[in-house]
Every structure is written in structure tokens, then in C-alpha cells.
Amino acid sequence: MNVPQHRREVLSLYRSILRAARGWQAAEGPAHTGEERNYIRQEAKKCFSQHKSEQDAERVRALLEEGESRLEIALHYNNPFPRPMNFSQKYVMSSRNKSAQKRMHKQSKPVYLYSSEV
After folding, report:
1. Is residue 44 within 8 Å of 14, Cβ to Cβ?
2. Sorting pLDDT into bands at 50, 70 and 90, what band is 118?
3. Residue 27 CA, distance from chain mean position
């Protein structure tokens, strides 16, 4: 992510994630704390290095929004792992029309799951 105007925001988000990992306490007890801390660090490293050469300002803004959202959700639910994606009954019922199904899938995908499709 070499876009200069977003560099400060990117580094700030990365530091926030590492601080969250350092102070992380697992909900299931101390036995899982180390595992979850490692997951947070590895996931941050993977995502940031995967997108480090991103030049498009809009894409960088979307990735920042996704990272902030994932961090907020992890802190709120005390769960660092991605939350599952649930579809409405209408989505399941309209499975005959593939183009409509793809459109609904894209529209209903939460912001914190966009980079997982790469």
C-alpha cells in the first residue's frame, strides 16, 4: 500500500491491530489466549503483505475500512476469527437464477469479508 496519503492511516491501523493482539484475552480462558494472539498477528501480517503494493486510492480506502471493521468486530465480540456470513431465506429460495444469486451474494457480503475472496 504505497499510496502516500493513506500511509499514516495504514500504519496506524496495523499498530492498533498489534496492540489489540498484545492485550488480547480469549473468552474461552487463558489456554486459548496464545493461539488467538498468534492468529491475530498472522492474519494481520498476511493481509497487509498481500495488499502492500496496492496503488488505487479507492481500493486502499476500502481495505482500511475492512480492517477497521474486522478489528471493531473482534473487540466487540471478543472473537478474532471472521464471523460467518448468513443469507436470507429469499436468497436461498432464488437459487435457480445464477446471475441473480451472484448479484445478491455480492450485495449481501459484509465489508469485513471482502479481502477473503482474493
Report:
1. yes
2. very low
3. 20
What gap in Å lies between CA 50 and CA 115, rounded to an integer?
A: 10
What span, in angstroms and rounded, lies between the C-alpha atoms of 24 and 44? Answer: 14
CA 18 centroid distance within chain: 14
Digit-coded pLDDT (tens) for 24-68: 999 888 999 999 999 999 999 999 999 999 989 999 999 999 999
DSSP classification of residue 111: G
DSSP 8-state assignment for residue 84:
P
pTM of the entire predicted model: 0.73
Q: Which amino acid is at 49?
A: S
| Type of residue numbered 69 | S
Neighbours of 109 (CB within 10 A): 13
DSSP 115: G
Question: Per-residue confidence at 3, pLDDT binned at 50, 70, 90?
Answer: low
103: helix, strand or coil: helix
